[in-house]
Design goal:
single chain; mainly beta; five-stranded mixed sheet
């Protein structure tokens, strides 16, 4: 999305760029998205495939080419601004919002071996995360993920974005074939609540949280945070 001039509504884009870690440069690719879109999410499955979730459905990016991918099951349409990651051959997707700002607290799993979606039932007496959008999620083990942040709606509603309330809580979800169990993580110090941050497993029991945006204060964040699970 290109915001363009204030008040214009901006423009959705369809271009795809590749970043070269060696030269530290970006290059626009010949492939284009099949439609202009914003607020989508992506995750890598295997060594060479990127799965992209949009409110219209699933796209795959492989060998420099983008293709629309048909799926079956209980798909999370028409949600955008979802938190998305992968564990093995499965894509995990949480939360999101539709075009009417109705937010979700559901967790879905997409099995990329048969392209079937499953909406998991929450199994937690204390409840799980509230309905929210633009949270961050990262894989912990082959059946667990860690979720941080996001934003929910104030009682007064969306109000052009001013009714978004950022969250600073952290959750662990344990995923089985049909269910998800949520456990809230308590720590002495939490990063400020935010949306649209990157959250990555560093591979040594540590997770890196970087960037993000506070929809209330309109502040962006530059200070990195490390979450240690050891």
């Amino acid at each position: 999305w290109d915001p363009m001039e204030p008040g214009s509504g901006g423009e959705f884009l369809d271009d795809v760029w590749a970043f070269d870690w060696t030269s530290k440069t970006s290059e626009e690719m010949k492939s284009k998205l099949p439609f202009p879109v914003s607020r989508h999410a992506a995750a890598t499955v295997g060594e060479d495939t990127v799965i992209i979730h949009t409110y219209k459905g699933i796209l795959t990016f492989r060998d420099g080419k983008i293709a629309e991918q048909a799926t079956e099951g209980d798909a999370p349409l028409p949600l955008s601004m979802c938190a998305m990651t992968s564990i093995g051959d499965k894509v995990v997707l949480f939360g999101g919002s539709d075009k009417n700002q109705r937010m979700s607290s559901e967790l879905y799993v997409l099995d990329t071996t048969n392209w079937t979606w499953t909406k998991l039932e929450a199994q937690c007496e204390a409840g799980g995360p509230a309905a929210m959008a633009s949270a961050s999620i990262a894989p912990l083990t082959n059946d667990k993920c860690i979720l941080f942040g996001g934003a929910g709606l104030a009682p007064t509603g969306y109000e052009g974005g001013y009714g978004l309330l950022p969250k600073d809580d952290t959750w662990i979800c344990t995923i089985s074939e049909k269910n998800v169990e949520w456990e809230r993580v308590q720590s002495e110090e939490n990063p400020e609540g935010r949306v649209a941050a990157s959250f990555n497993n560093l591979g040594d029991g540590r997770f890196l949280l970087q960037g993000g945006y506070d929809p209330v204060s309109k502040a962006t964040f530059t200070e990195p945070w490390i979450l240690s699970t050891d």
